[in-house]
Design goal:
- There is one protein chain.
- The protein has 2 domains: 164 residues, Deoxyuridine triphosphatase (dUTPase) (Deoxyuridine 5'-Triphosphate Nucleotidohydrolase, Chain A, Distorted Sandwich); 167 residues, Deoxyuridine triphosphatase (dUTPase) (Deoxyuridine 5'-Triphosphate Nucleotidohydrolase, Chain A, Distorted Sandwich).
- The longest helix has 10 residues.
- The chain contains 5 helices and 26 strands.
- The chain is mainly β and 375 residues long.
- Strands 1, 4, 5, 7, 9 and 11 form a 6-stranded antiparallel sheet that branches. Strands 14, 16, 18, 20, 22 and 24 form a 6-stranded antiparallel sheet that branches.
- The termini are far apart.
- It is globular and about 55 Å long.
Length: 375
Amino acid sequence: MSDTAQSFNALSGALTTALIRELVARGHVLSTAGIADRQYQPASLDLTLAEEGYKLPGSILPLRNEKVRDVIADFRARPLDLGQPCYLDRGGVYLIRLNEALDLPPGIGAYTNNKSSTGRIDLQTRTLSDGNPRYEKHSRGYRGELWIEVIPKSFDVRVRAGVSLNQAIFYGQRAILGDAELEGLMAKTPLLFDKEGRAIGPGEAVVDQGLLMAIDLDQEVVGYVAKKSPDPIILDVDEKADPRDFFDPIERPRHQRLLLMKEHFYILSTLEYVRVPTEYAVEMLPFETTAGEFRAHYAGFFDPGFGWGRSGEVKGTPAVLEVRPYDDDLVLRHGQPICKMAYERLCGSTDRIYGEGPVNHYAHQRGPRLSRYFG
């Protein structure tokens, strides 16, 4: 065994790039298309669409001991061919096989979520695995195919085999930092900053195993709202869309409050600047429903090095939020809590830092920023 991985079954924390490469080298992650170097991120692996896909009548989860293919056959899903450009209609529900399959060691599990660029175009993805009646979480030792449910919420999109919409994070024992651990880490190195670069102390931020962050409505453009467009967003080639065809900018509101309309999609950003040391990753957690029924993100994973730099010289980066109110219209006010960031310990310091490679598109974002698919 390589000296990078003493024993997968003894690991605690999320796996770094080197350990994910070890998983692939040992056949624990397989791909019908091969795994390219660009798929390896600082603490995750980009997953890619295969040619096989189906249109479903609605979201469907497999039952225990039921394969995803059994669900497809039972509901007579209509086949799609992603060997060529394939259009997915707004509001449709699609199930697409991923090129990557898993044969995980007994001590290693995985979870998946949207990539940032996918979430910022309101494209919802959720990953399914055989015999697993829940999305995104894949049990330790899982062996089998992976499928991705794709639901374009605001726009038609065009995809093809090889496109990456989501990512996988692998872990031994999850190592989420509790309040005392977060406070101790913040005493050594600040994790949140205000706009002027002043560190925010743990007493102002640590809440229920996470760092509370607020909405910023005091900037020239506070966000964007999706509008209906007759055109699809092209994801399968490097073709930049004109953002004016898909989003309207939202200028600074006069009274620092903003009305969000039910079932509309918004891009906003946080007041605080967050950073992630290279030994940690961060997950943006669903906000407590006691604060209102809305979704604050699709892409909830922040790589090690986000807002950090190589050695902690960067004083954070604002987090961009994908917000969709559900049951009612929602009034947000400047400085209102909007999301919570949970820190997770890695198995070690990663050798690939967010922001150092050409594929890290949001390392230097300031304020709300649209997806990389726009020019």
